Amino acid sequence: MYKTIISFLLGLCLTLATSSFAHQHIRPGLWEITTKSDLLALVPHIPSEQMQQLSDLARRYGLQLPQIENGAATSKICITQEMAKQEIPAYFYEDRSGCTVQNAKRTGNSYELDLVCTNQHFQGNGTARGSFSSPESFSGNTEFDSTVGGTPVHALAETYGRWVGERCTAVNPLQ
Questions:
Q1: How far, in Å, CA of 132 to CA of 110, rounded?
Q2: SS3 labels along the chain
Q3: What CA–CA distance (Å, rounded) separates 19 from 35?
Q4: Which residues make Cβ contacts (< 8 Å) with residue 157, sequence separation at least 6?
């Protein structure tokens, strides 16, 4: 059961942390993304050996688990010049956590999009909304309904992002 929950949390973290980038020409470079959620508050209750298994699994897929403290996941993401130019950065969703973007809309600095996720551990639908206060910062929220191991799960999350710097020395770009 913990492995299923952990897989769901990893997928949700990736989905929620990246959903806030839709439709904005953002500044390329290193970004710090923080996602707060009640589900992330469960992480301290997961046995350490299960967390190690999840970390090993993530590494096999070229991912690194974000730092999770006090119900928030913080990660760093490198955005290349080419990625920053794209109107709708679908690369954040396709082939990452089994999620795709639908009905993406942009009005000025605000965005809204639907997420549809299907993978072996969870299936679900959600909506992400947010806005950019500048090319270097954004905030948003995501509401997500899913089924994890046959159990319905409703998740709400708030996401904040800020540009950290031009160089991505320790983080590989999403590919």
A1: 7
A2: CHHHHHHHHHHHHHHHHHHCCCCCCCCCEEEEEEEEECHHHHHHHCCHHHHHHHHHHHHHCCCCCCEEECCEEEEEEEECHHHHHCCCCHHHCCCCCCEEEEEEEEECCEEEEEEEEECCCEEEEEEEEEEEEECCEEEEEEEEEEEECCEEEEEEEEEEEEEEECCCCCCCECC
A3: 11
A4: 12, 16, 35, 36, 37, 39, 40, 141, 142, 144
Q: pLDDT (tens digit, 9 = 90+) per residue, 25-57? A: 788 999 888 989 888 888 888 888 888 887 887
Q: Which residue has the tokens 């699994």?
A: 57
| Tens digit of each residue's pLDDT (9 = 90 or more) over 61-105 | 666 778 888 889 898 888 888 877 765 554 554 445 667 888 888
Residue written as token pair 């709400």 = 156
